TrEMBL record:
GO cellular component: cell outer membrane
Gene3D superfamilies: 2.40.160.20
Biological process, per Gene Ontology: transmembrane transport
Domain of life according to the entry: Bacteria
Protein name per the record: Outer membrane protein W
Swiss-Prot/TrEMBL keywords: Signal
Organism: Ferrovum myxofaciens
Signal peptide segment: 1-29
Length: 219
C-alpha cells in the first residue's frame, strides 16, 4: 500500500469516528449508564512483513542488502489495553504490552535480534443496533521503541524512536453489563532506520498486522 493511500485510509477512518460523534447520544446521562472505563486483556499474534529498502552496511567487507530481503520474526504474546468512552459511541484506546523480542533474518540467514516496545493510541467509533454484538473501527498512532539491538554482530544498529500509523477493526460481544469477549485486528505502518558507521543505511518496514482475541471488563 502506497504512502498516499495509507494516509487516506487512516484519515477516512478517523473522520468516520469524528463524524459519528454528532449522531451519538449523550454519554452516561443516567445512573444506570456504564462507567466510561473499559479494560481488555488479549493474546496477540504479531505478523510482520518482509520489507526493507536496499542498502549497504558500511563496515570492512561491506555487506550489501537487497530490497525486501530482511524478515523480522513473528511473535505471540499477551497485552493489556485501556479504553475511555467520551460518548456512547466514541472512545480512545491505549494498547500497552511488555517488550517484544524478535529474531531477524537476512536472505533466510539469522543475523541477530532486537526488542521493541509498541504502544498504540487509537480513536474508535463503536456501532449500535446489533444487540450484544458491538463492532468498531479505529485509527491512530503507533510508537515503536527499539532496544537491545544486536544485528550482524553489532555492526548494524537500529533507530531507537520510531512512529507510525494504524487502522483497526474489531468487535466486542457483551456477556453481561460488565464482561465481554473481544476480537481485534490492526494494520500498522512503521519504518525503522538501520544504521552503521554513524549513518542511516536503509529503512526496515516490518509493518505488522496485530491480531488479538481476549476478554474485557467495563467498570
Amino acid at each position: 500500500m502506497k504512502f498516499s493511500t495509507k494516509k487516506t485510509l487512516v484519515a477516512a477512518v478517523a473522520l468516520t469516528a469524528v463524524a459519528g460523534s454528532f449522531a451519538a447520544s449523550s454519554a452516561f446521562a443516567d445512573d444506570d449508564a456504564p462507567s466510561p472505563w473499559l479494560v481488555r486483556v488479549r493474546m496477540l499474534d504479531v505478523q510482520t512483513q518482509q520489507g526493507n529498502d536496499a542498502g549497504t552496511v558500511h563496515v570492512p567487507g561491506a555487506v550489501p542488502i537487497g530490497a525486501d530481503s530482511i524478515k523480522v520474526a513473528n511473535r505471540s504474546q499477551p497485552e493489556i489495553d485501556v479504553s475511555y468512552f467520551f460518548t456512547h459511541n466514541i472512545s480512545a484506546e491505549l494498547v500497552a504490552s511488555y517488550p517484544l523480542s524478535h529474531q531477524v533474518q537476512l536472505n533466510g540467514n539469522y543475523i541477530g535480534g532486537f526488542q521493541e516496545l509498541p504502544p498504540i493510541l487509537n480513536l474508535q467509533y463503536h456501532f449500535d443496533g446489533m444487540g450484544n454484538f458491538v463492532p468498531y473501527v479505529g485509527a491512530g498512532m503507533m510508537y515503536m521503541r527499539t532496544m537491545n539491538v544486536s544485528l550482524l554482530g553489532g555492526a548494524l544498529g537500529a533507530q531507537q524512536n520510531n512512529w507510525g500509523e494504524d487502522v483497526q477493526l474489531g468487535a466486542d460481544y457483551m456477556l453481561d453489563k460488565h464482561w465481554l469477549l473481544n476480537a481485534d485486528i490492526k494494520k500498522t505502518w512503521v519504518s525503522v532506520g538501520l544504521n552503521s558507521a554513524g549513518a542511516t543505511d536503509l529503512q526496515l518496514h516490518p509493518d505488522p498486522y496485530i491480531m488479538g482475541v481476549g476478554v474485557g471488563y467495563r467498570f
